[in-house]
């Protein structure tokens, strides 16, 4: 900040009047004449340090998830799908219609009232506890909702990037904390369904997983409990980390173009992984403009297509068969 361009009180600076709290900003990168969005954000705090030996400015930012969490609302949802519920919640918050990417959802006929709770955690995520879908803020700043079948269709059926030995740092891990052999699902009306695997408890001790699914009835809650138990009763690896540093064409594409839910293929002979596909669950960019380096760290989960959960007519129509009931 030697020229004080990022000092909010410097009236001669080119950004004077724009460096304000809650101002919308965007982080972009251009590579081979293609522009990539890395993040859309709002300014939280600006702290310039004009000392001669420092001359830098720190700008703290937050995304739409934090903004939506600050807005509390009371709203009644009537006869909706999950996607329609999320759309109405965003309407309640005054969220722009052009910053939404919402699936229709696998639940229908939703009737529920949420009273004076945050839009993000109290309305949107509450609905997703029953749906088993995901919601996140995309690179372009849009609120993205993907139902529980989203990853088993379309572009998600083939890898968007392939990483082989020598291209990346792959860090798998195995933890007992990922085991669940006593699943308790609380469903509409406050009732509960419990499913236990005795063999798993004998081997690893009791590990309870409580789940709230207040939009499900008894039958669907039972299916969910059995499905979760089947997935969690045996040890499985925690979401592994994949660290990539720029330097080759393939790495640039991965650094700039991958998004949450994208499918990637990994080969890692050191850990015994021949060719395995994963979904991206989280992305963290580390950019050093002085050193001209760019790293991205991806949190991954194993692609598990043969064990998807079908509840509701939309699921049958799209897939025809699946691991129904567990």
From TrEMBL:
This is Tail protein.
